[in-house]
Write a structure and sequence with these properties.
Blueprint lengths: L1 E5 L5 E5 L8 E2 L11 E3 L2 E3 L13 E5 L5 E5 L4 H4 L6 E4 L1
Length: 92
């Protein structure tokens, strides 16, 4: 089981969006701390507004169109490149 640590103060389950072509890990949780970092797969992921804010191959998280934290890799796949699987947990 992969573990994702976030500054959320709660634990929640996460699903990896392997049903899409992108492979992003959708947390299903809003992160209310504006500049929170998420630790995933031994990396500290910073929040970005767009994919182009990070170089190709760089992992990060962003607020998706539903207002939820989503982990992604620019021009890559978070599920494969970070070995994020199902289930994943966000822990404080």
């Amino acid at each position: 089981m992969a573990r994702i640590a976030a500054q959320t103060g709660r634990t929640t389950s996460v699903r990896s969006s392997t049903s899409t072509i992108f492979g992003n890990a959708m947390t299903g949780s809003a992160i209310l701390v504006p500049n929170a970092s998420i630790a995933a797969a031994g990396r500290l992921l910073e929040r970005e507004k767009t994919f182009s804010d990070r170089p190709p191959g760089a992992a990060f998280w962003y607020e998706n169109s539903n207002g939820l934290a989503e982990i992604a890799v620019n021009q890559g796949r978070a599920d494969r490149d970070l070995a994020i699987g199902i289930p994943v947990e966000i822990v404080s």
